Amino acid sequence: MIASHTIPAFYLKQFSSRAANRKADLVWVYERNQHPAQRNIRKQGKQNGYFGARGPDGSIDDKEHEKAMARLENECNESLVCARSDLFDRSSTRHRRRLAFYAALLYARSTQRRSHSEHVGKQVIADLASAAEDEALMTEIADKINSLATESLFTAASVRDLVLERVRLDAEPAERNTQFVEGIRGLVEHFTEILLRKNWQTWKAPAGTEFVTSDNPVINFIMLPHGPFHPGYGFNKGFTAFPLAPDACLIMGVKVGAPDVRMVDVSIVSRMNEAIIGICDRYTYSRSFSAEIGNLAQQVGGIFRYGKNALLPVGLNRPTAHDFLRRQFGLTQ
After folding, report:
1. The dihedral of CA 233, 239, 242, 245: what is its sign?
2. Residue 210: domain span
3. pLDDT, tens only, 146-189
4. Averaged pLDDT for residues 74-88
């Protein structure tokens, strides 16, 4: 297994400074219960087998997926660098689409979303295992299958065994990671279209202040009246923030007719940074050392977790395994 960057090194480079020996790009890294440290972006945020997925022959391959991710990122790098400029052409369909795609990609591949995906997967597995113990349901499914066949082939017990075999396979870490990796591209395409429908504005930080970023760099938030920016929503609600560099943060979801560029004040930068830090997975990054950012990382770093107190499907009822199986086999409700 190879060590993959959980967040692209090229993206982190936008928040880095060159080391004195000019051989490395460094960022300040903040983490709860740890002292801030300046680290090489090439060594930051790496995990063995992060993009490992099971192939047709059952073996785990991460090299091809790593290469595929690199190709997708490289296509967007020019737009990422240009977007921070006041002269960036936001009317360019090519640049706009690539930047939206890149933001969606960073969101979909983040460790925070991966943890959420695994959490949901475990819930589905437990629900499916529970459904397998429903003998009446297993009997209905067996009867339905047998009614379409020339002879009776299934019993409630054999159907239950098939369901439990699916549970066993889905419970394997390699299978869960495969589902995460293979689901990235579809999510990215979906989120890209949502972001392209939004109105964009670049916030510029005043001199002496910096936007930070994190290992969960693309966040959705709402502006609370006279309060902080509250993160942890879906792409269809509120605003989407994507820090581009220490001096620029792309905001998607502003009102129609808003200027392309907005110079914001120190309080806006502080509130944006607090939201980014609050919904990071583990790490916050900045170009310059900041005691204020260090304190925020200790106080609120990662307090918003997808599936626990953020990104909750309020008002939505996820189908149960019972409902799914009944629909899958055409059983009456």
Report:
1. negative
2. 3-115+175-300
3. 988 877 789 999 999 999 999 998 898 888 888 899 899 999 99
4. 89
| Residue 254 maps to a domain | yes
Phi-psi map region of 164: left, alpha, beta (phi>0 left; psi -120 to 50 alpha): alpha
pTM, to two decimals: 0.90
Q: Is residue 170 part of a domain?
A: no
3-state secondary structure 212-263: CEECCCCEEEEECCCCCEEECCCCCCCEEEEEEECCEEEEECCCCCCCCEEE
Domain count for the chain: 1
- The torsion angles phi and psi of 42, rounded to 5 degrees, stand at -70, -20
CA distances (Å), origin 205, targets 70, 261, 270: 30, 11, 10
pLDDT in tens, 256-301: 999 999 999 999 999 999 999 999 999 999 999 999 999 999 999 9
| DSSP SS3 for 18 | strand
What b/e sequence results for 281-298 when a residue is b if at least 16 CB atoms lie within 10 Å of its CB, and e otherwise? Answer: bbbbbbbeebeebbebbe
Which two structure tokens, joined as six digits, stand for 170? 């889905």
Q: At what angle do helices 93-108 and 173-197 cross, to 10 degrees?
A: 150
Strand partners, 61: 53
